[in-house]
Design a protein that fits this description.
The complex is a heterodimer of chains A (295) and B (264). Chain A has 295 residues and is mostly helical. Chain A has helices at 3-30, 37-53, 58-81, 87-106, 121-125, 130-153, 156-166, 168-173, 178-204, 215-230, 235-257, 271-294, and strands at 110-112, 206-208, 260-261, 264-265. Chain A has a two-stranded antiparallel sheet with strand order 1-2. In chain A, α1 (3-30) packs parallel to α6 (130-153). The termini of chain A are far apart. In chain B, the strands form two sheets. A six-stranded mixed sheet of chain B has the order 6-7-8-3-9-10, with helices on both faces. A four-stranded antiparallel sheet of chain B has the order 2-1-4-5, covered by helices on one side. Chain B is globular. The chains are: A mainly alpha (295), B alpha/beta (264). The interface between A and B is medium-sized, with 22 and 34 residues.
């Protein structure tokens, strides 16, 4: 793997790591498997593309994207809590609906952003080389998100969020409306995913309605790899682990893409298969280990 | 003070499996009353507590605490006035949160939660002081997660959490049933101590007739969703296990022979 490819993997690991932290909030903390993310990542990108091509400041575009993601998450959570639709199904419905909505927002399946301003401009104007500017921005932004999410989970509302995922009966008896907390939590998760979508679009210079395919699986892979490699004993450790897991995951993919065995080489289109296998192995490893011990 | 007026609760209403769980129960609980509730399996003891707490919606009737009509309040809102300890020790605490986080969650029962720190440093000494009362050494383990504690320790912690903010009503739903006899006795003593000390209005469901007689100032027996016996004051203090058993025989006849209440 070249130095350039490694830098690219680090960059991708950080920006998709923000998405993975969102997945961690729903999947692990709220115990709410949420597939909305496959739609809210391109939603963030679509909103950003529309905003940037309309001449709106890229930082405001980023905020708008986050807000859009929050609303998408709220829709899923309201379907689940207030209207009693199964969480998985509720999130698939929102995801499917977002496909159409994203095309409406962009007035087409994709928008090129090569000519527009981006959040990286201030760094580039400061004299940072273009290929480093995005990496530097992602390091700072991911650090900000990590600190912000850890802080949030130690607040009164954050503790209620932890308890809602852990023991809804108990936290209801303490006077917390779990519906409100789930709506807030899933909203927040999708806000993070949409922020990642916005940054990815600005970095690759295009928003595409299909860029969200497999987001949930990449998110899960990062969460699981992070937990396995870095551990999840405490909340700060677990959140940092997700980011680390995301970087490791992208590095692994970069390595796999360079793999050649005789006439066989790995194509980018094999990525989903590789990821699925990775998640399956990580998920089933504890069970298989136990079974092997018994024999 | 709690007033239940003509409470009716069905399960599976309108289907072939329809069960009348609470059959026109009217009950006036005075301030500071400690009522023990007994009855065979399916008598409606737990259903009654769940109706008061708001876990089960009722078909008709009225529930008042003080001068507030809470019949239409959702469960989480009733938590302002009502604290609960469940039968399952795992239900009362949050396993992945630390002891101090659990206490902090309980310290905010029924109050607005915001973006301030969940566990405030100024509350820690208060938590320690309260934990000391339990005599389990938990005051030195504030940062351990509740999942590390034994069932008895968790139930004791839940007792403390339920009464950290004084509730108008404390509901104990067979909270000793899942504990071994020795631990059950410890938690029972703790219950007595806290309820007396804080002068709590309490409803306690139990399977142990001994406990029902020993604790509280009033005893209620439920059968098929109805109150069939209500003793208080001196009448209650004179009750014996045999008195209660004969009441059961009177309503149940030979059914009782294989009821686990006999083992009590």
């Amino acid at each position: 793997m070249s130095w350039y490819a490694a830098l690219g993997a680090l960059e991708q690991g950080l920006v998709y790591g923000i998405m993975a932290i969102g997945v961690y909030l729903t999947f692990r903390i709220l115990d709410f498997p949420d597939l909305t993310v496959d739609g809210s990542l391109p939603l963030g990108a679509s909103i950003t593309a529309l905003a940037l091509t309309s001449g709106i400041n890229p930082f405001i575009a980023l905020l708008l994207a986050g807000f859009g993601g929050f609303l998408a998450g709220m829709v899923t959570a309201i379907l689940n809590t207030k209207l009693k639709v199964l969480h998985l199904l509720a999130s698939i419905l929102t995801m499917i609906a977002l496909y159409s909505i994203n095309i409406r927002i962009m007035d087409g399946p994709n928008i090129s952003l090569l000519a527009t301003d981006t959040v990286f401009d201030p760094l580039i104007n400061f004299g940072v080389p273009g290929y480093l500017a995005s990496t530097m921005f992602f390091v700072a932004f991911a650090a900000l998100i990590v600190v912000g999410v850890i802080w949030f989970l130690y607040t009164e509302i954050g503790l209620s969020l932890l308890a809602t995922g852990d023991n809804p009966q108990m936290i209801t008896a303490q006077g917390v409306n779990t519906h409100t907390i789930i709506i807030l939590g899933v909203g927040l998760s999708n806000a993070l995913v949409a922020l990642a979508g916005s940054l990815i679009a600005q970095n690759q210079g295009a928003a595409d309605v299909n860029m969200g395919v497999g987001t949930i699986i990449a998110g899960l892979a990062s969460v699981i790899v992070g937990e396995t490699v870095f551990g999840d004993k405490t909340i700060p450790r677990a959140i940092i682990a997700v980011l680390v897991g995301s970087v490791i995951y992208r590095m692994a993919i970069a390595l796999a893409l360079g793999l050649e065995m005789g006439r066989f080489s790995v194509n980018p289109s094999d990525l989903n298969l590789i990821t699925a296998l990775l998640v399956i192995i990580a998920l089933t490893a504890p069970t298989i280990k136990k079974k092997l011990k018994k024999v | 003070m709690i007033t239940l007026s003509s409470l009716i609760k069905y399960f599976h209403q309108g289907s072939a499996n329809e069960i009348l769980a609470i059959d026109d129960v009217t009950l006036k609980v005075e301030e500071g009353d400690f009522i023990t509730i007994i009855g065979s399996n399916g008598a409606g003891k737990s259903s009654l507590l769940n109706c008061i707490a708001g876990t089960y919606p009722i078909e008709s009737g009225k529930i008042e605490i003080g001068d507030q009509d809470i019949t239409q309040w959702p469960e989480f809102k009733r938590a302002k006035l009502i604290a609960r300890v469940f039968q399952d020790p795992l239900l009362g605490t949050c396993a992945h949160a630390s002891i101090e986080q659990n206490l902090a969650l309980a310290y905010k029962r029924g109050k607005k939660r915001g973006m301030g720190f969940g566990v405030k440093s100024r509350d820690r000494s208060f938590f320690k002081q309260e934990l000391q009362q339990l005599g389990l050494g938990l005051e030195n383990r504030l940062l351990d997660t509740a999942g590390l504690l034994s069932g008895g320790q968790r139930q004791a912690l839940t007792m403390l959490m339920a009464t950290l903010v004084k509730p108008e009503v404390l509901l104990l739903d067979e909270h000793l049933a899942a504990l071994d006899p020795k631990t059950a006795q410890q938690v029972l003593d703790l219950t007595q101590e806290i309820v007396t000390q804080k002068k709590l209005t309490t409803l306690m469901v139990t399977h142990q007739m001994k406990h029902a007689i020993q604790l509280g100032n009033r005893l209620i027996m439920l059968h098929q969703g109805k109150i069939i016996f209500d003793a208080r004051g001196e009448e209650k203090s004179k009750l014996t296990v045999n008195d209660l058993l004969s009441k059961f025989y009177a309503v149940q006849g030979e059914e009782l022979a294989d009821d686990k209440m006999l083992l009590a």
